[in-house]
Design brief:
elongated, 7 helices
Length: 156
């Protein structure tokens, strides 16, 4: 799973991870059906790609880096909280929990990057950003995506 584009020195974002994260940001309510769950996942891909594009090359330095990283962290925490309010289909409950947990952990990683940017520790900032796609949160999101796919959820 990849979370950043080559513009910041890493591979492109994995569509499955994008779908999961975007779904988190886009959904509301409870008791969604499997079809609604899948539709929300797939409809959200373009929005997440757009939101992660703002982290591009300027995320590794400059005056706006801290604000962008903090904003990304807050957005992931809010998305995780909102997603946690959704009652998933029974066969998606485990993956659903992984998504919530993974987003909170990914938010923590963004906080670490923001702290490094704030202290102008560019080596640490670059290390955090380059390791983002292999972070604990990213691995949980990938596992959730794979689990949903294995259960017939057509995550694109």
């Amino acid at each position: 799973m990849r979370f950043f584009s080559e513009r910041i020195g890493r591979r492109s974002v994995a569509p499955g991870a994008l779908a999961v994260c975007l779904f988190v940001a886009a959904c509301g309510g409870s008791g969604v059906s499997k079809n609604d769950y899948v539709k929300s996942l797939n409809d959200a891909v373009a929005s997440l790609q757009k939101s992660t594009a703002s982290l591009g090359p300027d995320a590794v330095g400059g005056a706006g880096a801290v604000a962008r990283l903090e904003s990304g962290s807050k957005a992931m925490d809010v998305a995780a909280e909102n997603f946690g309010k959704i009652t998933p289909p029974d066969d998606a409950k485990h993956a659903h929990g992984q998504i919530v947990d993974g987003l909170h952990k990914l938010a923590d990683t963004f906080d670490d990057a923001a702290t490094a940017a704030r202290s102008k520790d560019n080596d640490k900032l670059l290390k955090v950003l380059q390791g983002l796609d292999e972070s604990t949160g990213a691995r949980e999101l990938q596992a959730a995506t794979e689990e949903l796919s294995s259960k017939g959820y057509k995550v694109q």
